[in-house]
Amino acid sequence: MSTAGGKVIIVNPAREAGLVRFSSHYVQPHVGGDFASIVGVAKCLLDSNGVESKFVDQHTEGIEAYRDFFEQTQWQDIVRESGIDLETIVEIGKVYQASQATVMAWRMGLTHHYNGSENIEAVIALALLRGMAGGPGKGLLPLRGHSSLQCVSTVGLTPAIKSQAMTALEQELGIALPAGEGMDTLACVQTAAAEQIDFALLLGGNLYSANPDSRFSAQALDRIPFKVMLNSTLHQTHLNGVEGENLILPVRVRDQEKQAATQESMLNVVRLSDGGFDRLPALQSEVELIAGLAEQVVSPSALNFSEFRQHRNIRQVNAKVLPGLEDLESIDDSKAEFYIKGRHLETPRFQTPSNKAHFCIPKTTNWYRRSAAGTRLPEFVLTSVRNEGQFNTIIYSDEDSYRRQSERQVLFMHPGDLDLLDLEDGARVDV
Length: 431
Prior knowledge:
The chain is globular and about 65 Å long. It has 3 domains: 2-135 and 346-358, Dimethylsulfoxide Reductase, domain 2 (3-Layer(aba) Sandwich), CATH 3.40.228; 147-339, Rossmann fold, CATH 3.40.50; 384-431, no CATH class. It has 431 residues and is of the alpha/beta class. Helix 1 packs antiparallel against helix 4 and helix 10 crosses helix 12 (214-222). The protein has helices spanning 34-47, 53-59, 63-71, 75-82, 86-98, 108-111, 116-129, 147-154, 163-173, 185-193, 207-210, 214-222, 286-297, 311-321, 328-334, 415-420; strands spanning 2-4, 7-16, 19-27, 60-61, 103-106, 139-142, 199-203, 226-231, 245-250, 262-264, 269-272, 338-339, 357-358, 390-391, 394-395. The strands form 5 sheets. It has a 5-stranded mixed sheet.
């Protein structure tokens, strides 16, 4: 079972004459209907005695409160919010109940919602109900596309530094890290708008365009008197919100690195590259620039940042302070890729005080989709998608060959919804 971009994929193995034949079923829930879809499958299991009781009793906690939540959940709400008919939900439940080994995989289609965390908690609970965690062919597999996104959490940023990683860093380097609470990206932009940020060091990204309110974003950036931007590509942030002093430092991209670099794959494998090609010799890497800046503001007696100009030295520290990355210490010599330790659960033993997994009860009990009170029109949920001419927050072209579109300002709707609103393809609408 997998959810990719809001689409549920059920892989159903059927045995014929000793052979295993796989058939895939694609089920498309409403935008934002992922949670209701998952809840529906879980309710099927609870209603049909499809729970692996021995596993739940021995390896989990909180099943009683979880059952209470489902007793109060009505099928009519699940069907309306998910956009999937009851018969299909029941069919999915039967396929899952018959399975002896299932891997739950998901991508950003589940996480990029205001209730993204609850979406994932619901997936985890669904796996626990059938004991699909800690055993051959069983597990939970988040597929995160970018190696940088994958590695950020691996090195202890989620989004604050994990206390374990922070303590280990302080002990290994003999330093005291700042204990104050930091700000996320939105809070930084809001604080800049209030003229409370004097200096900003922007490490990559396209902050102006990433903000959904570009006018507010430009005003906020304008109010930072001194900005330094490290980027590999020119983009809109270099042209908007640039009042005051604005320094742009071009950097090498990964395949232009002078030194060997490691990256983590979606499947938790760490590999070492041999460095890249020297396309623009004058360019420095991010590591060189950050280390050089740090050398100017941090006393060598506190921490000698010149050592961290070398990638190998960074890997040596990471190997000592980050659980699961011990093999980084020898990768420069062995060149051998390795699987990060602790990611594969061979037995259902979880990293909690009781070593048991927890069933999480949804905090957001109001449903995602609501009727537009006082009007005859239905209410729709809007989601954005990335077009083919876009890479992350940088737009290279308005064309989208994947969807056969020449413009970006396009709204896609189901034909049935168009009929409901008495609209035709190509109509101009206000959103």
